[in-house]
Amino acid sequence: MKLQLNLQFFAGEKTEKATPKKRQDARKKGQVAKSQDVNTAIVLLAVFFLLLMTGGYMLDLVLGIYKMSFQEFMLMELTEANLQTIFVQLSEKAALFLLPIMGIAMIAGVASNYMQVGVLFSTESIQFKLSKLNPISGFKRIVSVRALVELLKSILKISFVGFIAFSVVWSRMDEILLLSQKSVGASLITLADITIKVGLFASVALLFLSLLDYLYQKYDFEKSIRMSKQDIKDEYKNIEGDPLIKSKIKQKQREMAMQRMMQEVPKADVVITNPTHYAIAIKYDEKQADAPIVVAKGLDYVAQKIKFVAKENDVVMVENRPLARALYDQTDIGQAIPEEFFKAIAEILAFVYKTKGKV
Question: What is the value of pTM for the model shown?
């Protein structure tokens, strides 16, 4: 009894890799190996790289907005028409500044998701489930090992990225201390350059951490979809069908084939027997085929049934032990008899036709 319980325990232990069907089902539910940090890092890297490449263009836009605001709009009389003009012009400038950033962020976000999971659309994760409101389940998620890992990851990210950002700022501290001696424009250029450099280095650092996080997420995902040996057996049964049901289906198919075969026996010209173990029903119709056709054959019980049906329908039975055995081994139902048996079958058919008065 104890041994049986141990075997059941090990059979239920999830130690096997997930099958392709299990992976496909998990993917349909939106369950895939994915790191959100990869998306964040790639988006930030793309945005700061864009700012680095188009810094002059962005600076001109910002300065243009300031000039319009303080040199033109401040001196204009506030009327309904003027307010509309101010709103339209500022909106155009803001759009020229924001659209490239939003566009590259969207492209980077889509690309990072595609690199991780490919094309995937699933509404399973956003469906409303009452189980999500269970406070006990929520508390278990908070104090789980996964929550602890996420906390450690967050501390590591803040520490590592913060150190990188601090190092970049510290290396430019001399320039920062001299900002008070520069013009407003020069100060803005210096601050923008430092900000972009901090963003790029921090993004690269976050990307490095996110790759490690992706490996962890992949490991955790593979662990979560593991299957027990019993799960694999159950899945195989669901795909291939229950062996008991399959055997019943095959039995039913055999019964139907047997029934169709027995329906052909009364049409046969002769049944060649062993006489105990074999029975082969032969039909010859020169209008339909050039050679006699085997319409039924059987061994033991089936042979006896063929003989019974033949007797009930006055089909002539001829005993020929070697011929019956050879025909059973070398022919199939619906197949013409081989050429080497033509002479023997012709003699038997001639005897049958003579007996029935057809000759």
Answer: 0.55
